[in-house]
Design a protein that fits this description.
seven-stranded mixed β-sheet, 3 helices, 7 strands
Amino acid sequence: MQKITIDWSYPMDIDHILNDSRMSDIGIYYITRKFGGKISDLYIGKTVYSYKSRLDSHWWYWLGNYRGKKYVRLGTIVRPESISDENLRQLINDAEATLIFCCRDQLIHNTMCTKSCSPSQRLHIFNTGRRGNLPAQVYISDDEWAKD
């Protein structure tokens, strides 16, 4: 099982995030909303192209369907430190699938990877920074892994 660390940014208002300097980067993102004094977890996603392209498509496609103030945290894989672009893209794909599967009961909008999950490799993810409701550590247990 490979260990990785994802560092999460401060939650940024969805209406202003597209102006952030990191919008050309790739990684994982976590969308939440605040409505009626309560914070809900909406979605975990990934992009191997750019945050801007992915977040822009969400806004027009489905985010407007949810009332309240929406926030986005950007997740950067900080460990392992030196990996190839191809390996980074694979880690992003596997990390997204693992996070969704492990947090499926709290995510409102995700539909993929909620019943079963088949990342190319098993990950033990350490979430650091402003992780919101995400657990400090997630991984797919032996029992859950065997079901795939």
